[in-house]
Amino acid sequence: MTRAPEREVEPRPPGDEHDDDDRGLEFTTRSVLTLAGFLAAMILALYLLLPQLAGLEDTWERMRDGSPFWILVALAFALGMFWGYIEMFRGVFSKVGAGVIGRTESYLITMAGLAASRLFAAGGAGGLVLQAWALRQAGLGRRVVADKTISFLVLTYFPYAAAVLICGLGLRIGLFPGEAPVAMTLVPAIIALIMMGVAALILLVPTDLQRRLDGFARRTGHIGRVAQKLASIPAASSAGLHDAIAHLRSRDPALLGAIAFWAFQIAVLWAAFHAFGDPPPLAVLVQAFFVGMLGNLLPIPGGVGGVEGGMIGSFAAFGVDAGLAVVAVLVFRALTFWLPLLPGVIAFFKLRARVELWRRERGATIQSKA
């Protein structure tokens, strides 16, 4: 079994094709105002109309009666969530971006990515695109970015799958207290187990599968070349999984950021419930949180409403008071989803300035070698 070795930043000449990678990332005043107006309308609809449609007219009254102390505690947990995500990113990318991707760069890239994932829906795809662009501008090769991004995603979402499996089965067999509807416990646990099995099978794919298909591509012409290109997907996935395992074996404490990222989010939700009443049992809180987060995969403009609806529905399925779930989830989303938007936009513009610095440094390095 082969595993792609660590690859360092490779200087690239200024003016090559990668310098134009950011054309789709330009912000104009008109586009920003249009998007801001649309998001404002969506937020008003979500936070004002949802309680009315749900027959929960006392929602805002309940929010006004919430505990300021517990909301401040939730805010502190939200800051811990962002810290965990930044440290996780630094732990994965700092080695291949030695001297380029440090803590400051990790903050700029991750916060800008979080803002992009808020503005563009579908499971945070906008954030991944922006992160890939920034890493390419930092000098990392395409395959390095692909492998490391998969590694980052695997390390980030493995705690997600493990929690769904443990809490789902634990609730279903009565190991943990709380209601245990099949659709919210056993079904997600089975899906998580299947995904883990698929990941284990992908590990068997050679990371240099494309190279091994060179001869086949030459013999079969167009069909072989298409097959070779398609092979890049399982090959990169395998390389990313192997890289994730290598990171775990290194015992880098920065990788604890993945656990902190999820644990602090759950802590925010727990504190939000405390602000307005009593939280559900811990296993129910964790399971409803993760099942509800699947709403983030819905291609809803701005990502507004999918997770809120999914999470509130999940808590309702577990028998949690609907009014309490609505106010807790809305506060949770305000702190974890909307809070990073402004600092994320600021980070984006600072990141663009850092990209220009990287380009000038690459140009100076290449000229000095000429």
UniProtKB/TrEMBL annotation:
Q: What is this protein called?
A: Flippase-like domain-containing protein
The membrane spanning regions, by residue number, are 31-49, 69-86, 150-171, 183-205, 254-276, 282-300, 312-331
Q: Name one GO cellular component term.
A: plasma membrane
Spans annotated as Disordered: 1-24
Keyword annotations of the record: Cell membrane, Membrane, Transmembrane, Transmembrane helix
The subcellular location is:
Cell membrane
Q: Where is the composition biased (Basic and acidic residues)?
A: 1-16
Organism in which the protein naturally occurs: Solirubrobacter phytolaccae
What PANTHER family does the entry give? UPF0104 MEMBRANE PROTEIN MJ1595
